């Protein structure tokens, strides 16, 4: 595809405002959604648009709770000018911003300098205000103050349950100041594991076709949060690479800033949703192309399906083929629909025949599928070391080729945030398949993924591709003809104007994303989102000279800073280094390997020598210029550590020691500054009823224990933040509760 350049929000609004403003007719015309006592900035100076407004806000934590309520920020879209912005005053008295006075209920153009701090007095409080401007390709505004007809704000409503959806008004704003006010027909949550994260993804359907920053006009899009990818770009890199390499379908996408009811939710990737029909990713056929004119099911027909091991009955329409769950994406039918059983049977038969053929290591797959697309999907997954290779998000289009013969086409690519060195993988699974270098850019992957140590043949279809000789030969040819030129362009080594239409250089992507990412992380999202994410602090770089057939590896590792730029550079370099290793391995001619002395090695060091953490809090330590072999805590009951992630348990001091691959050991002192407490010392509860008691502070209840009595008991899980006290028998008792090693007592009166 051609490219051109939950309740949490309610809490925030309450914190940001003393009370909800009362509006007159004029104010209703100014902003379409319900506002609080706050300042609002518009995306375009001098515009009469009522949708593209953003409220000043504070930094939030992972639970959307406000941090430093006196420090306010405007996370502005890229359409705002460099030095002036229209601000609306929703306070009941005049407010002055940078010497410009704004009357209540009025708008004024305010001059500002990005990054400079301004003192603002509003609502009887004094705030520090900072303006930050994005670099993203567009801004998406979706507004509805009454999503359920009961006064619930849109995101509160949607985030409470993935199955919920709502209509909305809104705006699409591009850097040139153009505003598209096409209404939103439906927005709802999406994703499986990603939906459970703090920063959530969504599907959005507009009332009519829209073009976002030069994308092909369409109605349906996905807003990818990329929460687990600190570069915010792994999906974008591989989607666009598949396009540049000539794969039959590719989801076009843009970096966007996402706002709802004035609140900035972060930097997202707006992506074409995988659909069939006109103005979609798969335009070759429509939803009803499986039917004859008389309503009967055709003898042969096109369809879109997905290999998805996580498919569930009641939510998905799928068939099982030799243990593989194949979700039928189009035609999308429900039980009772015309042709439901016939379509399921047809998909099962066609995919079953193809899947059976993949068992062979020598058979030519061309009778069943387009071999170039199979080779390309294998290369994308091998390049990325995609954790989900052959497990989920593996799409196939079944359609006629140019000669009218129906075949499978492997495409479009989807869901690669845990690729390109991002994920650590599951230790037990890696051990069982014999992979010890998953995080590294060296080593094969697809021929191990899904393979059990007790079987000779894997049921994982990507694993089967990795062993098929004819497919691998074609993959080698495509690698050097299509993929290598694209990656050389991406790296900046050999710029191609033609390739740049589909795949930008890494520097171009960075320039589009960097300031949007800065806002994303400044607003409160974490760079490191848990133990699942690999260490991105250092890497030994490699290169491949395709003409001279020389594979070079630097003698000393490159260190990466623990900010967005460092994490982006790591993702970029990992992909380039991986491509160099694959080129060496797939070369048909001998390759010279050499080590390049790239200077004096930098001294190995920890990201911190001492840290202070409240009980229940978490800190992440990373190692620069070396690789960690093992981590140990001197007092694991005070602070425990796993792969550099420190979890503070109770008040005290512990020493974290890490052994490095160069034989050195480094240490960090951890001071746990508080111990867990209960929100109440005593409660009264009725028999067979419950009362809740919260664990105060930042203690999250990592390892709770309860000593119950015959009068009352705690029914919560050991990791709970809120304890449920249940009355069993009338009387008074004391429950003994251990939270992260700290012994606490709770008096209970059961009536």
How would you describe the overall organization of this protein?
The structure is a single chain. Helices cover 19% and strands 32% of the residues. It is an alpha+beta fold and 751 residues long. A hairpin with a 2-residue loop joins strand 18 and strand 19. The termini are far apart.
Features:
disordered N terminus, single chain, 751 residues, 5-stranded antiparallel beta sheet, 32% strand, 19% helix, 7-stranded mixed β-barrel, alpha+beta
Layout: helices, strands, pairs:
Layout: H1 7-16, H2 25-30, E1 39-42, E2 53-55, E3 59-60, E4 66-67, E5 71-76, E6 84-89, E7 95-97, E8 100-102, E9 107-111, E10 117-122, E11 125-133, E12 138-143, H3 154-159, E13 165-173, E14 179-180, E15 184-189, E16 202-210, E17 218-224, H4 234-244, E18 253-260, E19 263-272, E20 303-307, E21 318-321, E22 324-330, H5 340-357, H6 371-384, E23 394-400, E24 406-410, H7 427-433, H8 461-465, H9 469-491, H10 506-522, E25 538-539, E26 542-545, E27 550-554, E28 558-559, H11 564-586, E29 592-596, E30 605-606, E31 610-613, E32 618-620, E33 623-624, E34 628-633, E35 639-642, E36 645-648, E37 652-660, E38 665-672, E39 677-678, E40 682-685, E41 690-696, E42 705-707, E43 712-714, E44 722-727, E45 731-739, E46 742-750
Parallel strand pairs: 5-11, 12-18, 27-29, 31-38, 40-46
Antiparallel strand pairs: 1-2, 1-6, 3-4, 6-9, 7-8, 10-11, 12-13, 13-14, 13-15, 15-16, 16-17, 17-19, 18-19, 20-22, 20-23, 21-22, 23-24, 25-28, 26-27, 30-33, 32-36, 34-37, 35-36, 37-38, 39-41, 41-44, 42-45, 43-44, 45-46
């Amino acid at each position: 595809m051609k490219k051109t350049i939950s309740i949490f929000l309610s809490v925030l609004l309450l914190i940001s405002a003393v009370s909800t403003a009362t509006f007159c007719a004029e104010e209703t015309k100014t902003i379409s959604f319900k506002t609080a006592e706050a300042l609002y900035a518009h995306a375009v100076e001098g515009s009469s648009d009522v949708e593209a407004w953003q409220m000043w806000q504070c930094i939030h934590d992972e639970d959307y709770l406000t941090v430093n309520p006196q420090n306010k920020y405007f996370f502005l879209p890229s359409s705002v000018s460099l030095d002036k912005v229209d601000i609306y005053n929703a306070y009941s008295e005049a407010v002055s911003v940078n010497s410009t006075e704004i009357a209540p209920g009025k708008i004024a153009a305010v001059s500002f300098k990005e990054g400079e701090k301004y003192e603002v007095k509003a609502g009887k409080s004094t705030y520090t205000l900072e303006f930050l401007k994005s670099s993203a390709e567009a801004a998406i505004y979706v507004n509805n103050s009454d999503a359920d007809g009961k006064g619930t704000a849109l995101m509160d409503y949607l985030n409470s349950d993935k199955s919920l959806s709502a209509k909305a008004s809104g705006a699409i704003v591009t850097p040139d100041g153009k505003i598209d006010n096409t209404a939103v027909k439906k927005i709802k949550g999406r994703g499986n594991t990603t939906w459970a994260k703090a920063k959530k993804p969504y599907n959005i359907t507009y009332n009519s076709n829209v073009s976002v920053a030069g994308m092909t006009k369409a109605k349906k899009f996905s807003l990818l949060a990329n929460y687990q990818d600190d570069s915010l770009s792994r999906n974008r890199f591989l989607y666009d690479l598949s396009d540049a390499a000539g794969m039959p379908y590719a989801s076009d996408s843009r970096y966007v800033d996402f706002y709802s009811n004035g609140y900035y939710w972060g930097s997202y990737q707006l992506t074409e949703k995988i659909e069939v029909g006109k103005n979609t990713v798969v335009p070759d056929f429509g939803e009803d192309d499986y039917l004859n004119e008389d309503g009967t099911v055709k003898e042969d027909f096109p369809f879109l399906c997905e290999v998805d091991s996580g498919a569930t009955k009641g939510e998905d329409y799928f068939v099982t083929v030799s243990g593989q769950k194949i979700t039928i994406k189009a035609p999308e039918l429900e039980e009772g629909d015309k042709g439901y059983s016939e379509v399921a049977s047809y998909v099962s038969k066609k995919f079953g025949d193809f899947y059976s053929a993949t068992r062979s290591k020598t058979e030519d797959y061309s009778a069943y599928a387009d071999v170039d697309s199979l080779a390309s999907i294998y290369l994308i997954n091998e390049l990325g070391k995609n954790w989900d290779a052959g497990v989920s998000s593996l799409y196939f289009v079944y359609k006629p080729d140019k000669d009218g013969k129906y075949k499978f086409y492997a495409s479009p690519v989807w869901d690669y945030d845990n690729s390109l060195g991002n994920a650590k993988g599951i230790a037990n699974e890696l051990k069982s398949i014999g992979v010890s270098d998953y995080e590294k850019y060296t080593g094969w992957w697809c021929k191990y993924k899904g393979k059990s140590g007790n079987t000779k043949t894997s049921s994982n279809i990507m694993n089967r591709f990795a062993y098929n000789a004819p497919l691998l030969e074609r993959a080698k040819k495509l690698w050097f003809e299509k993929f290598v030129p694209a990656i050389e362009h991406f790296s900046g080594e050999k710029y191609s104007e033609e390739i740049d239409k589909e795949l930008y250089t890494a520097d171009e992507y960075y320039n589009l994303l960097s300031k949007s990412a800065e806002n994303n992380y400044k607003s409160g999202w974490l760079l490191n989102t848990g133990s699942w994410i690999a260490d991105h602090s250092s890497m030994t770089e490699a290169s491949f000279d395709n003409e001279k057939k020389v594979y070079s590896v630097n003698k000393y590792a490159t260190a990466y800073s623990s900010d967005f730029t460092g994490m982006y550079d790591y993702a970029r370099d990992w992909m380039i280094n991986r491509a160099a290793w694959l080129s060496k391995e797939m070369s048909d001619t001998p390759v010279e390997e050499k080590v390049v002395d790239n200077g004096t090695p930098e001294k190995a060091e920890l990201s911190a020598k001492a840290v202070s953490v409240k009980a229940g809090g978490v800190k992440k330590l990373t190692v620069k210029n070396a690789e960690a072999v093992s981590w140990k805590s001197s007092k694991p009951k005070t602070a425990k550590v796993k792969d550099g992630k420190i979890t503070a348990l109770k008040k005290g001091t512990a020493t974290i020691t890490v052994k490095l691959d160069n034989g050195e050991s480094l240490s960090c002192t951890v001071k746990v500054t508080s111990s867990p407490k209960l929100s109440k010392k005593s409660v009264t509860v009725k028999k067979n009823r419950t009362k809740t008691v919260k664990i105060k502070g930042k203690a999250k209840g990592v390892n709770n224990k309860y000593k119950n009595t015959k009068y009352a008991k705690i029914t919560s899980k050991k990791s709970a933040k809120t304890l449920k006290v249940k009355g069993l028998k009338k009387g008074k008792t004391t429950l003994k509760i251990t939270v992260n090693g700290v012994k606490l007592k709770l008096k209970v009166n059961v009536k």
